[in-house]
Model the fold of this input.
Amino acid sequence: MSETLFTKIINREIPADIIYEDDLALAFNDINPQAPTHFLVIPKKPIATINDIQQADREVVGHLHWVAAQLAEQQGFAEQGYRTVMNCNEYGGQTVFHIHLHVLAGKPMGWPPYQERLKTPV
Ligand code: AMP
Done:
């Protein structure tokens, strides 16, 4: 797998606003936030997409949500609530091919994420 910019962030080859790190994961603020709070939790192991998750990766992938919950508690938005999202491939809107959990908070989130476009009358 070719190196993505998230591997470069893990290796400190490019800067990021890192808010958490442990043996398995790293969290940093999103460069283009879509909510008052928007950070990404990534595994240190490069896994390109959700489709590439192996059985041996179950612990690390579950760990990403544990880190999200710890940071939600620390940052004080756990009770109010938040959204986690992991996009997969083109239709999911994935642009960086190193899986990452988006954590969005600080305002009520909309749902559903997709709405059928109105058909133009003929
Ligand atoms: P996705 O579209 O789900 O693949 O999400 C990729 C996310 O990475 C986007 O929300 C980007 O704003 C974010 N992003 C891209 N480059 C950086 C960077 N250098 N530092 C922090 N976040 C980034």
